[in-house]
């Protein structure tokens, strides 16, 4: 099989620079997995390294639950707030040095309000210091197969070493629900009553998506607006992770589309490989989502320039969806019986190695330019004529978009096959 790269010796360095730069152009990363089987239902750049922001706190709480189950901590234990915890920036509960808070209230503050001060209070109790606890978090991540993840703090505040991926966060969320079902309710609470105040959960997916029952929001300038959500419909639980939205509203809207797409696929058994097998050896730095002119302070601290990030909206699934009473989606056909808008797929080629398929996808995105904003690119593992191959596809295109894709790709000398829905 011909290698997808066609590079002359003299331009090797430039081509390699291009390829190492391309991951930073990703507009978002996403994954949906079936919680029971652990299989991938849908993914886009799910192994790209990303700044997790406050999604970090899912690991902080996972380790808190583990300590409770082991008897090293109890829900009604009292924790004392250190000066370091009290100094944490927002979002926070407003804890003061020397103040006390129960373990359960600290958990609730983290799961509903994403309170950085409460997260540090838990970390210091479990690890002795936040930095020691961060080391424990990284070790736990490695044991769980979160190979793209490392942690420097318990909250997700900006740090170049605070890294994860959509795949890793889906693994973590699945483990939390599986290992601690008795405590998952803390991620489902829509409000937190504390000292005479009733504080609403910042995770609006709990109110905007009927089947959602948890998990966590996150935001920094580097990460963009992140979200993990879990939803259960007709006995099937899905976990969705979305990284890199450009507004809070966008992450909730597109997570709903992501979960809808996941339930559609799972209804017909369109499962991919186990999420544990979704691996990537690409260690390029995470993309910086929001430019310094939009997020001046922390963006400059992280080395962003005025041109970093992208502002194009995420479109998990083009067009408006219609939710039926039985929670299924309508598939429409055109008057001539052809596939309706959004049902066409462009196949870019099959490869023996996933890394070759990934490179093909990145090169196709580069060749397409602004046209790459539409549809969903992905790499799937297939079996054909007894051989396991990696197929590169671009899904959810209208017929005109698909034809335009192929015209552009063929003009660049790239393979392209149209597949009507």
UniProtKB/TrEMBL annotation:
Signal peptide: 1-26
Entry keyword annotation includes Heme: no
The Peptidase S11 D-alanyl-D-alanine carboxypeptidase A N-terminal domain, residue ranges: 23-246
Binding site for substrate: 216
Gene Ontology terms: biological process: cell wall organization; peptidoglycan biosynthetic process; proteolysis; regulation of cell shape
Family: Belongs to the peptidase S11 family.
Active site: 54, 57, 114
Organism: Methylomonas methanica (strain DSM 25384 / MC09)
Protein name according to UniProt: Serine-type D-Ala-D-Ala carboxypeptidase
Region feature Disordered, mapped onto this chain: 289-322
Keywords: Carboxypeptidase, Cell shape, Cell wall biogenesis/degradation, Hydrolase, Peptidoglycan synthesis, Protease, Signal
Lineage: Bacteria, Pseudomonadati, Pseudomonadota, Gammaproteobacteria, Methylococcales
């Amino acid at each position: 099989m011909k290698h997808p790269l066609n590079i002359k010796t003299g331009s090797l360095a430039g081509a390699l620079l291009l390829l190492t730069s391309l991951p930073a152009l990703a507009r978002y990363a996403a994954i949906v997995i079936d919680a029971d089987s652990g299989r991938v239902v849908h993914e886009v750049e799910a192994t790209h390294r990303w700044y997790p922001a406050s999604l970090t706190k899912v690991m902080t709480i996972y380790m808190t639950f583990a300590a409770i189950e082991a008897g090293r901590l109890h829900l009604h234990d009292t924790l004392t707030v250190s000066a370091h915890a009290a100094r944490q920036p927002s979002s926070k509960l407003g804890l003061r040095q020397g103040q006390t808070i129960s373990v359960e209230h600290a958990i609730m503050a983290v799961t509903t309000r994403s309170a950085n001060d409460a997260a540090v209070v838990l970390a210091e109790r479990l690890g002795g210091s936040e930095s020691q606890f961060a080391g424990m978090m990284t070790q736990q991540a490695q044991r769980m197969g979160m190979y793209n993840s490392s942690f420097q703090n318990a909250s997700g505040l900006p740090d170049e070493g605070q890294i994860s991926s959509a795949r890793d966060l889906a693994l973590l969320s699945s483990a939390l629900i599986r290992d601690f079902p008795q405590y998952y309710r803390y991620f489902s609470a829509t409000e937190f009553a504390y000292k005479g105040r009733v504080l609403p959960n910042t995770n609006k997916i709990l109110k905007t998506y009927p089947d959602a029952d948890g998990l966590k929001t996150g935001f920094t300038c580097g990460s963009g607006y992140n979200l993990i959500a879990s939803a259960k419909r007709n006995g099937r639980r899905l976990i969705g992770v979305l990284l890199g939205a450009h507004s809070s509203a966008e992450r909730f809207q597109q997570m709903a589309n992501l979960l809808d797409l996941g339930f559609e696929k799972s209804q017909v058994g369109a499962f991919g490989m186990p999420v544990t097998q979704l691996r990537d050896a690409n260690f390029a730095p995470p993309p910086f989502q929001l430019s310094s002119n939009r997020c001046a302070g922390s963006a400059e601290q992280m080395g962003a320039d005025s041109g970093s990030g992208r502002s194009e909206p995420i479109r998990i699934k083009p067009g408006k969806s219609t939710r039926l009473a039985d929670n299924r989606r309508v598939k429409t056909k055109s008057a001539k019986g052809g596939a309706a808008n959004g049902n066409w797929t462009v196949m870019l080629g099959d490869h023996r190695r996933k890394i070759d398929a990934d490179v093909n996808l990145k090169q196709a995105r580069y060749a397409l330019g602004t046209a790459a904003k539409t549809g969903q690119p992905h790499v799937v593992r297939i079996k054909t004529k007894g051989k396991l191959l990696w197929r590169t596809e671009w899904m959810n295109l209208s017929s005109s978009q698909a034809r335009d894709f192929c015209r552009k790709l063929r003009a660049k000398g790239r393979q392209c096959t149209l597949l009507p829905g």
